[in-house]
Amino acid sequence: MKDLIELTREAVAALDLEVVDVERAPLGLLRVTIDRPFTGEGGLVSDIKIEDCERVSRQLSRVFEVEGIDYRRLEVGSPGVDRPLRTERDFERFVGERIDVRLRDAVQGRRSFQGVLQRSCEQDGSKQFVVEYQENKAETKRVAFDVTDVERAKLDPLLDFKGRKR
């Protein structure tokens, strides 16, 4: 699977896009999630268009055929509003945004936290991040973690009924 992810990343990078996720699903489905590379400004809402998905689909179909990758269907899409966060770069990109993070080990007696992602400091060569969350209405708490401590993480934006970020 690691080779498939690297192959997919290389093929998509040529189109000035980045791979967020590659997933093998039942019945031979290969699902690839793409986004625009982070340029340092904005970035909560993905601006992937259907044309981008079509270009990536055509490119990957050719590459996978040449490389002999076995799949029945290829699905290419954008990450959506609850975009997964996997790499340190993803966490850097979304500092200041609401996230939902589940840690591998309990911290402060819990593993799941929903709050605002903050940048912390660098410790022992790895970057630390902080989630600032509400314990109750009057008390704000913070939990620090390293990206390697994360079991799963995703954006958790507050949306109004018109679909816009609040």
Automatic annotation (TrEMBL):
The keyword Cytoplasm applies. Its main location: cytoplasm. Keywords: Cytoplasm, Ribosome biogenesis. It is found in: Cytoplasm. Required for maturation of 30S ribosomal subunits. PANTHER family: RIBOSOME MATURATION FACTOR RIMP (PTHR33867). This is Ribosome maturation factor RimP. It comes from Orrella daihaiensis.
